[in-house]
Write a structure and sequence with these properties.
This protein has four helices and no strands. It is mainly alpha-helical. Helix 1 packs antiparallel against helix 2 and helix 2 (32-43) runs antiparallel to helix 3.
Length: 85
């Protein structure tokens, strides 16, 4: 954990971490939470519960938007979706 009272440094680390996590999520198509939670707990010193809640808060709306985009583009095979759910 980085123990600093320097708000500019902590903000810079959050920005760099966000860019890195966004790259990992975009490049691999998911899994950003696997990087985000340890980043927030170990480097930023956040509590586990808060780190997990923050990751879910970000993932849920993005998943909903992605689903709407896929549906709007007609990329959802509804009969297959119904079979697997």
């Amino acid at each position: 954990m980085i123990k600093t009272k320097n708000k500019k440094l902590k903000t810079f680390l959050k920005l760099i971490g966000g860019v890195f996590i966004g790259f990992i999520n975009g490049f691999f198509g998911g899994g950003g939470g696997m990087v985000a939670v340890p980043f927030m707990t170990h480097l930023l010193g956040e509590q586990d519960k808060k780190a997990h809640a923050t990751a879910i808060l970000i993932i849920l709306p993005l998943s909903i938007v992605s689903g709407v985009v896929y549906i709007a583009q007609g990329a959802v095979e509804w009969d297959t979706l119904i079979k697997v759910t």
